[in-house]
Write a structure and sequence with these properties.
This protein has 95 residues and is mainly α. The chain has 2 domains: 1-58, no CATH class; 60-95, no CATH class. Helix content is 71%, strand content 0%. It has helices spanning 16-44, 48-58, 60-74, 78-89. The chain is elongated, with a radius of gyration of 17 Å. The mean pLDDT is 90.
Length: 95
């Protein structure tokens, strides 16, 4: 059994906390195999943002495609995303 279930492919944007999770997953696999890895993944999945960031480090292309497919199924276009980003960046009007 290899010490790592998979390797980090894209480390761009990873924080120290993300690396801590990656190390925890890999150490869990090393000491307890697939069962420990699955349990560690369940714990990580409780934080969807960190889960997505960590999974993207291992499988960037697969995650990108899955997100595109899910957005297409929901009817969300690239233009919709750009509009949402612009709205988030613009200052809120005075009330």
């Amino acid at each position: 059994m290899s010490d790592k279930p998979f390797d980090v492919v894209d480390s761009s944007g990873l924080t120290d906390a993300d690396w801590a999770e990656i190390n925890r997953l890999q150490e869990g696999y090393k000491t307890g195999g697939r069962r420990a890895l699955n349990e560690a993944m369940k714990v990580l999945a409780k934080d969807p943002v960190r889960f997505t960031t960590v999974i993207a480090a291992f499988f960037p292309d697969m995650l990108r495609e899955a997100l595109r497919d899910a957005m297409a199924e929901a009817g969300i276009t690239e233009d919709d995303l750009q509009d949402m980003a612009r709205k988030l960046e613009s200052p809120a009007p005075d009330q």
